[in-house]
Design a protein that fits this description.
mainly beta; elongated; five-stranded antiparallel beta sheet
Length: about 300
């Protein structure tokens, strides 16, 4: 709204005037996540003062029922079960500092952990036959898994259904259980060329870096002393930083002690790097990292 208040609104798919059915308290951010199967409820996230709440909002009378408070960076992938009795989402475990897949009863009475032993999990949707889909890069690539959940509990162990999704964006699930996503098809790589700084003439043509990390690379930058080229791989929620030492022509993959990183980063004058990412506590921002150890 013009006064800065966030609202949930409904509009007919054929067009018409939007109807507001819920307004967040002043100073709170509001974001809808999913609609119940019968259309009577919307699950939303309300955030303020470094705390996020999962809220169930009635589309009939606009009443809101808070279900759970979570870490300030909020739940991810909130989605109703096929019978709308449960909500699945990804959240940070404050004790282990790992992201987990959690099921929460829609009345807030029960909560169960579905997946807790995999890296960088993200809920992607729930099929009508009870399969909960999530992604994880536990095996080194971003893979899609399915786990059967019945009455908020794991009924069968997770099974990998698709390997190496690569850089992509989820587009959701169809009623018959097909998962759609967009795929980045551009090819990126890091190459080095020698150029005369005075004339601009190319002394040595571009050549790809040697080493085992040559796919989906980008965002490369020279260190202040010109001895090292650093870059981030173009993978979803990257957790590693790659350095190429010019003198010995060695390329190293350095795991970084962050939950995940974005593509923006810079060398610092002291030889360390500043990376935009999220730490193990779920706090986002700029982090100073040692490019030799990843700490």
């Amino acid at each position: 709204r013009a006064d800065g208040i966030f609202e949930l609104r409904i509009v007919d798919a054929a067009g018409g005037t939007p109807k507001s059915f819920y307004a967040a308290p002043e100073g709170h951010w509001l974001g809808p996540h999913d609609w119940s199967a019968d259309g009577t409820s919307v699950v939303a996230e309300v955030t303020a003062h470094q705390t996020s709440r999962i809220v169930l909002v009635s589309t009939v009378d606009g009443s809101a029922t808070p279900l759970k408070s979570v870490n300030w960076n909020g739940p991810e992938g909130l989605t109703f079960s096929p019978d709308s009795h449960w909500l699945a989402f990804t959240a940070l475990n404050p004790r282990s500092k790992n992201r987990e897949v959690v099921c929460l009863a829609v009345d807030g009475s029960q909560e169960r952990t579905i997946v807790s032993d995999r890296r960088n999990v993200q809920v992607r949707g729930w099929t009508d036959n009870g399969l909960l889909l999530f992604t994880s890069n536990d095996q080194g690539t971003l893979d899609l898994y399915a786990v059967r959940v019945r009455d908020g509990q794991v009924d069968q162990s997770p099974v990998r259904v698709f390997s190496d999704l690569g850089p992509h964006a989820s587009l959701g699930l169809t009623k018959d259980g097909r998962y759609f996503h967009s795929v980045q098809t551009e090819s990126f790589d890091v190459q080095i060329a020698s150029v005369d700084p005075e004339t601009g003439d190319v002394i040595e043509p571009p050549r790809p870096l040697t080493g085992a990390f040559q796919s989906r690379q980008a965002v490369a930058k020279w260190s202040p002393d010109g001895a090292t080229l650093g870059y981030l791989p173009r993978t979803e929620r990257s957790t590693s930083f790659i350095v190429h030492e010019v003198k010995n022509a060695q390329t190293k993959n350095i795991p970084v002690d962050l939950q995940y990183m974005y593509s923006s980063w810079a060398w610092l004058p002291n030889g360390r790097i500043a990376i935009n990412g999220v730490n193990r506590l779920g706090r986002g921002g700029l982090h100073e990292v040692d490019p030799k150890t990843g700490s």
